[in-house]
Amino acid sequence: MKLRHFTLTFFSLSVAVFAIPKVAEAASLSLIADGLNNPRNFDFASDGSIYLTESGRGGDGNGGLNCIPSPSAQYIPLCSGNTGSLLRITPDGQRQTIIPNLTSIALQPSGEQAAGPADFKFDSKGNAYLLTGVAGNPESRDAVLQAPDLGRLYKVDLNTGSLSSIADFAQYEVENNVDGTDLISNPYAFTILNDYAYVVDGGANTISQVALDGSGIKKAVAFPTLQTDRSKLEFPSIPPIGDIPGGGDFPGNGLPAPLTGELVSDPSGTQAFPITFQSVPTGITVAPDGNLTVSEYSYFPYPEGEARIFSVDPNTLQIQEKLGGFTQLTGVTYDNEGNLYALQHINTSEWKEILQGGEVVGDIGGSIIKIAADGTRETILSGNGLEAASGLFFGPDGNLYTSNRARLAETGSLVRIDLKKESENKKVPEPATVISLVAISALGATKLRKRKQQEELGEELLAKVEIL
Predict the structure, then answer these.
(1) How far apart are CA 356 and CA 354, in angstroms?
(2) How many whole angstroms separate alpha carbon 346 and alpha carbon 328?
(3) Which site among 100, 175, 447, 452 is 20 to 30 Å from 59 CA-CA?
(4) Is the CATH number of domain 25-424 2.120.10.30?
């Protein structure tokens, strides 16, 4: 949980205040499209249009028949509906629905945390591809949800809206369970390099190499578990929901497979939580050195400052930890100078700020952190309208774009982060520098007092001389 005294003259305090730059953001945010349902990843067409996936808000699940318990939201029902879509936003801001009525599942009745259309990309030849998520036990996808189109990568005909499946990640998880833990699949994002798509699955905790020629998934590798010290884990105090993994009577008995990992209780002792140490990869991009860069969200209870960024060899899928110290990352990208930008979904553990079911009770502000080649980090935007965002990409105009409030229904948006004024902003001094400025200002005040005393003494002597 988000669980100071010395005296200065007014003058010295004033000098210190004016000498210290304000906490100025190195970017500003502007709205491109709003009123969206769980907007996710996107890509830019050659004409500057944005093709954006909207995961939708689920539905009533055919009267509750097509629902499964959420494995990550206290087993609130995830119910299906045809509310997902692929949108096109033209350079002049016009919005068009390219493919409507795509399958979506989401927490009900809020429509939060939907899975459905998750990412869209063009390859170098202009071919289009669409990724869909599942966010649940893949064994329930066909039999219970009646949604065999979820958890796949498709080649898309933008003229007709037809989809041709080239990879089935949900079925791959059922057959292989690469990380050896619970059976969960949620393809979340992908990038294209040469003739392959590289897909990160935040449920299966894997990265997959998929041939774009339609020959399927070539290989998949699990990300290393996140072994966080127990002392760094905080838990919410919520009423018990029954034995893990129970918590509800769902048609089709669509309960997830037993979770792997120890059970711990929150401080009040009212609820047991499964600790799985899973990675939960989310964002992916191609690095300047030709490798892949992947961000992770981390597992419940989403320990702050523990999320990592990985480098992945696109040929072998060998994974190496590159950076750490982040919180709930949902996107990574590079600028033309090789600087890495990382997107924090929410700056604190999500359960502190938003209740399961979509009720925002705290600050859901996120951050964009710039990491230079030498490892220097600078937060270019924190809060100030950036909220629960997902996906981070550079547009043809040189600015960053992200999906804001990407986990919420009706209030999601697409925003642009203008970086053109970045060079005009001054960095905030380190604490030692601030102390130095205060000390200098106090010293300046002392010197001015002495100077004034000397001037007054000089004037007094001059007056005596004139009298003489």
Answers:
(1) 7
(2) 7
(3) 175
(4) yes
State the pLDDT at residue 239. 53
Phi, psi of 217 (to 5 degrees): -80, 120
Classify residue 464 by its DSSP letter: H
Task: For residues 430-434, give the mean pLDDT.
Answer: 35
Query: Which one is predicted more confidently, 435 or 125?
Result: 125
Q: How far apart are CA 111 and CA 58, in angstroms?
A: 6
And the tokens for 236?
A: 């919410």
Please determine, for residue 24, whether its predicted confidence score (pLDDT) is greater than 50.
no
- The residues, any chain, with a CB within 8 Å of residue 323's CB and separated by 6 or more, are 308, 309, 342, 371, 375
Q: d(Cα 261, Cα 271) in Å, to the nearest integer?
A: 16
Q: What's the CA gap between 71 and 48, in Å, rounded?
A: 38
Q: How far apart are CA 328 and CA 202, in angstroms?
A: 12
Domains of the chain by residue range: 4-20+433-468, 25-424
Cα 28 to chain centroid, rounded: 18
- Residue 197: per-residue pLDDT: 98
Angle, helices 431-467/10-19, rounded to nearest 10 degrees: 130
Residue carrying structure tokens 């079925």: 171
Dihedral angle of Cα 166, 168, 169, 172, to the nearest 10 degrees:
-120
Cα three-residue angle 185-188-194, rounded to 5 degrees: 115
Chain centroid to CA 428? 25
